[in-house]
Design brief:
Blueprint (H helix, E strand, L loop, with lengths): L31 E7 L5 E6 L7 H12 L3 E6 L3 E7 L3 H10 L7 E3 L3
Parallel strand pairs: 1-5
Antiparallel strand pairs: 1-2, 2-4, 3-4
Function: Probably involved in translation.
Family: Belongs to the SUI1 family.
InterPro entries: SUI1 (IPR001950), SUI1_dom_sf (IPR036877), SUI1_euk (IPR005874)
């Protein structure tokens, strides 16, 4: 039995890029990410990141705080830019608010337990 014949044929030579040239696979660029983080005990924190540039995060935070009757803050992150943090589990309320404002629902990613 001769194993040397495998050296002449490379089965992956003609494949090229396995993703088909689509470089955006797995990127988090064009999505709004809504996550929930557990604090201590029953306390939770809802974060919103990836907001498009045409929306002012300060005005949006003020509207969130008034609409949901919770406190919140705006945090600057090196990787994600400006992140809105709200007290409590406000994930579904944020999704409903943003879809009413005209953001398509397929661009919103909802994370959490």
């Amino acid at each position: 039995m001769n194993v040397q014949n495998l050296n002449s044929f490379d089965p992956f030579a003609d494949e090229g890029d396995p993703l088909g040239g689509n470089q955006d696979v797995g990127s988090q660029q064009n999505y709004l990410h809504i996550r929930i983080q557990q604090r201590n005990g029953r306390k939770t924190l809802t974060t919103l990141q990836g907001l498009p540039k045409e929306y002012d995060p300060k005005k949006l935070l003020k509207a969130f705080k008034k609409e949901f009757a919770c406190n919140g803050t705006l945090v600057d992150d090196e990787e994600m830019g400006q992140v809105i943090q709200l007290q409590g589990d406000q994930r579904l309320k944020i999704v409903n608010f943003l879809t009413e404002e005209g953001i398509p629902k397929n661009t919103i990613k909802l994370h959490g337990f």
